[in-house]
Amino acid sequence: MLNRKFVFLGLFLIAGFLFLNNNSVMAADRYWTGAQSTSTMGGKDFWNLANWDTSVAPSANDNVWIFATSTLPLQATVIISTPVDLGTGKIYLGYNQKGNTLANSSAPLTLIIVEGASLTNRNLFEVGTSSTVLLTSGSLSVGTTTMKQYASTTISSVTGATSTVTIKGNWTFGGGATYTSPANSTTTITGTTQANTITSTSTTALTFGYLVFSGSGGGITNLQASTTVANRLSISAERTLDAEGAVITLSGSNSNSMTFPFEVTGTFTAATSTVTYTGTAATTVASTTYSKINWDGAATYSLNGATTVTNAGTVASGATLALGANTLTATDSTWTNSGTVSRTTGKIVLASASRFDDGTGTAKSAFAGDSRDHVGIQVTDTSLNYDAATAETQTATITAKSIISDAETVTLTETTVSSGIFRGSVIMGLSGSNVSAQLDYQGPGTLSYTFTDFQDSSDTGTGGAATFTGTAPGGGGGGGSETAATTVTTTTTTTTTATTTAAPTTPIVTTTPTAATEPTLESVSTKVALVVAKIAALPANPIASDLASIQAEIAAILTELQSIQAAQPTPQGVALGFNFVRPLALGLRHSDVTKLQEALKTDLLVYPEGLVTGYFGPATLKAVQKFQEKYGLAGPGVAGYGNVGPKTRTKLNELYGGK
Q1: pLDDT digit string (tens) for 449-495?
Q2: 0.85 exceeded by the pTM?
Q3: Closest among 580, 564, 587 to 649, alpha carbons compared
Q4: Which of 7, 135, 496, 546 is the most buried (most CB within 10 A)?
Q5: In this structure, what DSSP letter does residue 646 have?
Q6: Which residue did the predictor score with more confidence, 458 or 307?
Q7: What ranges make up the beta strands (E) of 381-490?
Q8: 407, 468 in Cβ contact below 8 A?
Q9: What does 312-379 look like in DSSP terms, one character per residue?
Q10: Of residues 347, 344, 318, the one with CA closest to residue 330
């Protein structure tokens, strides 16, 4: 019984050996001869036995050589009209003999795969020089090693065809080689855990209708060829597309009955690639990380979510990039907008650069207050250029710190409609009060600024390295009233009804009334001080009689001033023995202000109040303005009006300086 079992086992092994050996013999090399006449479809039928060297058509796992020669010109077109599956067999198109290289091929031909037909193998597929594979709604599936297209080869589908091409291994293109798949056709690059690579030395971009990178097991496809996709490029889950240095053009838009032209479910590695959207209608932009990205064409491109650009982003003229509520991070990238960017609450994250300048674009860090320098700020941030047709504005705050501190908000205007460079400035002025649109100072000090990106509060610019020189006031502090403090004592008479002992009566002496004295500036000054004190002492709601009394006193003072003015000729200057050498302005308290007031009060038409307090207040400001108008030095709306500048000091020295 045991021996019988060994006999059966031996027979089984022998049968298996014969089976394997028979299959090995069946895997043969088949050579196309094209001896049979042209078929009704315009070429030679792949399955006609007469077209093969041994009158045996290829079968699974056979290696196939298909070529044309000058002696057999009619074989230049081969028709596949039914499914062909060569298994692990290799396919060579354009070889003229076994072992010849495609680069040396002199036997180009055209292989046509018609509608309903297919060509499949799971091994090497090579297309020789000047040969063509044409699909008319058929399918081509190429196996797991390499597909090669040598110089001037073409794989294409006829316009309007719905064909499918599946590549499971590497894909190599020689110089001049092309691949063209119409809009409705699909090309799938697939695999499992292995990596595959698409490389090209051709200057012509590969053209796809739908391009799909699929597979399981976490495989990677390395794209090293320029690629144009008419409808959609999609990366399936578990697949990675490493774009390396490829140039990818996506010409689809949302109107192409799909979600958007770039669909990333798996992983997209941008590397140094360039992705260009060229849609002609509303287009959604995939939320992923790009190296270089361009938005071209007159379309609106809407971000689908948070998006990152690591190298360069460009919005072309006519294009609109709609951020919506999304963030586009372009840190350390070059950002160029020649079109329009819109947003709701979204933003572009790109660090700004800012500095002090002279207001015209020249960097500056030292300023002269007494020369009325303009302190400028320049901010460079191309992400703030939202509309390339309009010069936009931003704001910054400049602070001057000396004896006083003053902060001014400055409007920064874009230097051109699309430069992304914003400039603005404010003039410096010696002052003790807050003069609008002027950076006030007293003495030398430091300058700083703050700038905050209006769309990205985390992007701020600060500067504190600038300094300035300027006149420092002498004497007391900065504040104070124009009028010298005056103490007014009010005496109230109280009537008492108590009985007292009468004092001795003093004889009444009759005196002659003294003639009324003429008013003087001193007497008028005293009356003015008393009136001011009375006004200060009025309650919040004074009675009418008190107001009438004060008005009467003011009228009397004005009458006395007119009397003094009529009695004195207009002076031509009184030698004070003092030369004015520094600028003076509202708010200063200084000995020079005292000299200024002494000079101005000599002309009642200029300074009728005549108060000398050492403080440059509103009355002194008005007097300086009258002085400037009288001598044609300045007027309303003219820079320096009300300030004691070079021209005003020259005239003061001429009239009141040392004689």
Answers
A1: 999 988 888 888 876 689 999 987 643 333 333 433 333 333 333 33
A2: no
A3: 580
A4: 135
A5: H
A6: 307
A7: 393-401, 405-414, 421-430, 438-441, 445-452, 460-469
A8: no
A9: EEEE-TT-EEE-TT-EEE-TTSEEEESSEEE-SS-EEE---EEEEE-SSS-B--EEETTTTPEEEEEE
A10: 347
